[in-house]
Amino acid sequence: MNSTYQQALHLLNQVGDDTCLSFFNSFPSVEKLSIQPLSPSWLDICDCLSHVGSASSHTQALVETIVSNAPRQQWRQPYKIEDFGEDFYNKVAWFPIADANGPLIFEQGLMEVMLLDANTEYPAHKHQPEELYFVLAGKVWWKADGAKGSWKHAGEYIHHLPNVVHSIKASDQPVLILSCWRGGGFEMPDIV
Predict the structure, then answer these.
(1) Does the N terminus or the C terminus of the chain have fewer Cβ atoms within 10 A?
(2) ∠ CA 55-177-90, rounded to 5°
(3) What's the pLDDT tens digit per position in 112-157?
(4) Helix (H) or strand (E) holding 15
(5) Largest Cα–Cα distance in the chain?
(6) Residue 43 and residue 78: Cα distance in Å, rounded?
(7) Which one, of 91, 111, 90, lies nearest residue 102 by Cα?
(8) C-alpha–C-alpha distance, residues 102 and 96, integer Å
C-alpha cells in the first residue's frame, strides 16, 4: 500500500500544475502516516482489471502496481442497489489507499482507486470535500455543473470544487481512476 500511495503522490507532483501540486501538498509523506491493515476483499467487477483501457506514459507504473496488488486490497461498494440500480452496483468498486479507517490513516481527506466497468455511468452526485479524479487507464465522459461535457483520457485529471454536481461514464473499456478528496474524509455523496 505504501508503494501505491507514493506512486500516486509522485504522479500528482509530476504533472506540475497548480491544481495537482495543491493536492500533492495536501497529503503528508508516507512516513507521517500510521498503518491500519485492512482485510482483503474481492468483488466480481474486479475481474475486469485484466482489460482496463490504455494507460498513459505517466500513469502506466501506477496502473501496473494497482493491477498486481489488486487481490490484496479491500475492494468495496459503498452504495446500495436502490441508490443507482443493480447495474451500477455490480459494475463499480473502490479500494482505499489513505483515509480515516486505513490502510494508511489520514483524517483530512482520502485517496482511493475507483474501477468503472465499460459503458458504466457514475450518475450525478455531489459532496462537501473538494475532489480530484485522475484518470489512470481508459477514458471517461465527464459532465459537471456549468461545464460542457468532455472526454478525459488516461493522464488527464478532473477537479471538482465542494458541492459541484458531477458525473462520469466509462467508454467501451473499463476505467481506473485515482480519486483524492480534501476537506473531509469519506462520506456518502448526495445523489442528485
Answers:
(1) C
(2) 115
(3) 999 999 999 999 999 889 999 999 999 999 999 877 899 999 999 9
(4) helix 2-15
(5) 41
(6) 12
(7) 111
(8) 7
